[in-house]
Amino acid sequence: TLTEAVKNAARRPAHPFRVSTLTKLDELVSEVRHDLSSALQVLQLKDNQNAQNDIEEVKQSIKIAQAQQLAANVRSWLSAPDAMLDYNAASTKRRPGTVRWLVQSTSFETWLEQENSFLWLHGFAGCE
């Protein structure tokens, strides 16, 4: 019939492929989707691993920096004080005649002149 021929002719341009071809294309698209999904998961895992490695490197860098800072603090704490600061501070507090009794004593003169001698001083700090 003419009506059926027109319907069949109208269907062909709308569906130019056979059902088997469409089925194969659908299977190929599914496989590509699956492969792309797997590839994306692998890339995400690699990115995750790279991020974890970067975090570990940062942690190590922080530990090294903390150890270096601690070492610098210990070295600073153990270093000798600036004697000039102590000398200047003591000089401003000096009173005339301080320690004259010591340097004019015979014990001090004997100590200066004799080899391998020692001088034992006792008393309160800053006493005259």
Question: How would you summarize what this structure contains?
Answer:
The protein is mostly helical and 128 residues long.
Q: Which key terms come to mind for this protein?
A:
5 helices, rod-shaped, single chain, mainly alpha
Describe the fold and architecture:
- Helices cover 75% and strands 0% of the residues.
- By secondary structure, the chain is mostly helical.
Number of strands: 0
Question: In percent, how helical is the residue content?
Answer: over 70%
The helix tally amounts to 5
Which spans of ≥5 residues are poorly predicted at pLDDT below 50? none
The amount of beta strand, in percent, is under 5%
Q: Span between N and C termini? A: 139 Å
Order of helices and strands: HHHHH
Q: Give the biggest beta sheet.
A: none
What is the residue-averaged pLDDT? 86
Mind telling me the C-alpha Rg? Answer: 48 Å
Can you tell me the overall shape? rod-shaped
Secondary structure category: mainly alpha
Write the layout of secondary structure elements.
Layout: H1 2-14, H2 19-78, H3 83-93, H4 100-103, H5 106-113
